[in-house]
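This section describes the prediction task in plain terms. A model, or a person checking by hand, is given the sequence of a single protein chain and must write out its three-dimensional structure as a string of tokens. No templates, partner chains or ligands are provided. The sample shown here is typical of the held-out split.
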Amino acid sequence: MQEGSRDVSRNGSGYIDITARDAIYRADRELLKQRRRRTLERLHKVANENGFYIKGNIYLTEMEEDDNV
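The expected answer:
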């Protein structure tokens, strides 16, 4: 999902397009929030199924993608 090599500030013609950049950032941020929510729900479900509950904070950080794959 991370597009480190892509410059989302520029459109297909190479001109800076702030509106498109902001829209892409908002969409990516919303997708990341949904993925985190689903992951946390699954973690809580697994804990509950095994007689545990999660007490405290869980910090999720997106793993860096390997460009060589």
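For orientation: The CA atoms of residues 1 and 69 lie 14 Å apart.
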